[in-house]
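User: My collaborator sent over this chain with a note saying "see what the structure looks like." That's all I know about it. Can you take a look?
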Amino acid sequence: MTLAFYRQRLKEMLSAKRFEHSLRVMDTAVQLAAIHGVNARQAALAGLLHDCARSLSGETLLTMAREFKLSLHEVDLALPMLLHAPVGACLLRRDFGIADEAVLRAVSVHTLGDEQMTLLDQILFVADKIEPGRQVQEAAKLWDLAHQQLGLALLQCYDLSVSYALSIGDPVHPQMIEARNRLLLDRSVGKI
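Assistant: Without extra context I'll predict from the sequence alone. Here is the result:
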């Protein structure tokens, strides 16, 4: 299937605002992929389709997560919108015919991260936070950092996400804490 086909399907599923966000994430991911030596088509596909399940209700996401036999944490039950990433990856496989495991994985972890983030995973996670339409105060700094040191940009994106959750009184998902900690520990031993 072509990107144009996926773009049209996605346009029918999302609000105009969310669809525009997806296009900007796709463009940002492709730019970062070029800099960091990642396959541009995978980055484009992951960027475009990362929020395919974002318009579903929390109740629907929980139902689908159970249907797909996804592991659920109590934070997922409290904040089911976090499930749009792994549920979205399952929908991409089932309903869009996406078989590229790297793309599916990147979509699945784009909200919470993971302890073993691939370069494509990192690019999508960061692109989702720094795309030009985001109203993040640190966006320009993160944009520059993402071009030079993707791992450090990822760490700062984790920090922003954790800080935001704390500022609104939400629980922080342990998957994100574990991913952040792994990145910090790898950094301390020179792996990033």
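A starting point for your reply to your collaborator: The chain has eleven helices and no strands.
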